[in-house]
Amino acid sequence: MKELVRTNDPTLVAFVSALLQGEEIDCFHMDVHMSVLEGSLGVLPRRIMVADRDLFRARAVLRDNGIALADES
């Protein structure tokens, strides 16, 4: 699995998930339950992961919808 997005913005997480689901790209959310450890402050970013084979398509979907990706390595 490869990291597609890392953000503190829960609305971006939901939007990216909806876009990927619409393109039938499976994604996995990581660090969702970290708010228990941090006290629900939202300082720890959440990550959206995709399968290696879907990374190129997933990045293209985000770019096409105006979501800038910081690191495309």
Automatic annotation (TrEMBL):
Superkingdom of the organism of origin: Bacteria
One Pfam assignment: DUF2007
SUPFAM superfamilies, A to Z: GlnB-like
Domain DUF2007: residue ranges: 1-64
Gene3D superfamilies in the record: UreE, C-terminal domain
Protein name: DUF2007 domain-containing protein
Lineage: Bacteria, Pseudomonadati, Pseudomonadota, Alphaproteobacteria, Rhodobacterales
